[in-house]
Amino acid sequence: MERVDALKAAEMFIHKYYPDCTAALLAGSVVRGEATETSDLDIIVFDDDKGPYRESVIAFDWPVEVFVHNKTSYQSFFESDIERARPSLLRMISEGIVLIDAEIVQIVKQQADELLKKGPAPWSEQTLRTKRYMLTDALDDFQGSTDEAEAIFIANTLADRLHEFFLRTNGRWIGDSKWVVRALREFDPVFTDRFVTVFDEFYRTRNKHAVIELVEEVLTPFGGRLFEGYSVGK
User: Fold this and answer.
1) What is the pLDDT of residues 78-129, one digit of tens each?
2) What is the largest CA-CA distance in the chain?
């Protein structure tokens, strides 16, 4: 027996567990048409008498992630998204399908759309130097590593720092886990293909050359590697 489709399940969930909520939206991979066998339902609930809190449950044969907010709590989460440059709630609300409509939905959706379009605040000069130093540090560790097992995990750190540096210096949002590639692809598909290819080549063959070359190319417009002369708190 097939489980009920995502939208219907979300509507049933709200009706059963949050019948008196002010508004609700369905977001996530099922909305974007990217759902897999393990995808869950991301449901944002607005309730004047509850939240903020997050809860994971199983309902109607679906894993459900519920994000409950009152009429003001979402604002601090927006601020956190902007500070981290990872637009988790911003994206969910912007893309969300309305399950229960109310005036607050359109207000919050408009705010999310505007903030997403604006992008994160640019790095300060000191932050840029720090991130450049951290990327250099990971690159040096990667290049100098003679232990294959260690190099695998250094490469993980290097890939994450490289994606962050590339996107943030271009005024773009960053990602985490699967959103690393999604955030890169949204901005520059050509760079993303190369990014994936060079790290895949390293993981398969342990050849470091292409990874090192890519990181150095990204660092070059900002002065290249940074070690000598870097300081903080002096």
Assistant:
1) 999 999 999 999 999 999 999 999 989 999 999 999 999 999 999 999 999 9
2) 66
CATH of 6-118, one of 3.40.50.170, 3.40.50.11720, 3.30.460.10, 3.40.830.10: 3.30.460.10
CB atoms within 10 A of CB 169: 17
pLDDT at 51: 77
Provide φ and ψ at 41, rounded to 5°.
-100, 120
Strand 97-100 vs strand 62-69: parallel, antiparallel, or unpaired? unpaired
- φ, ψ of residue 97 to 5 degrees: the values are -90, 130
Distance CA 75, CA 112 (A): 10
**Helix or strand (DSSP H, E) at 66:** strand 62-69
Q: What are the E-state strand segments in 70-205?
A: 97-100
Task: Give CA–CA dist 98/73, Å, rounded.
Answer: 19
Tell me, rounded to whole angstroms, the distance of Cα 53 from its chain centroid.
20
Domain parsing of the chain, residue ranges: 6-118, 125-222
Six-digit token string for 180: 């690393």
Q: Dump pLDDT digits (tens) for 190-219.
A: 999 999 999 999 999 999 999 999 999 999
Nearest to 152 by CA among 203, 211, 212: 203
| Alpha-carbon dihedral angle through residues 158, 171, 120, 223, given to the nearest 10 degrees | 50
What's the pLDDT band for 49 if we cut at 50, 70, 90? confident
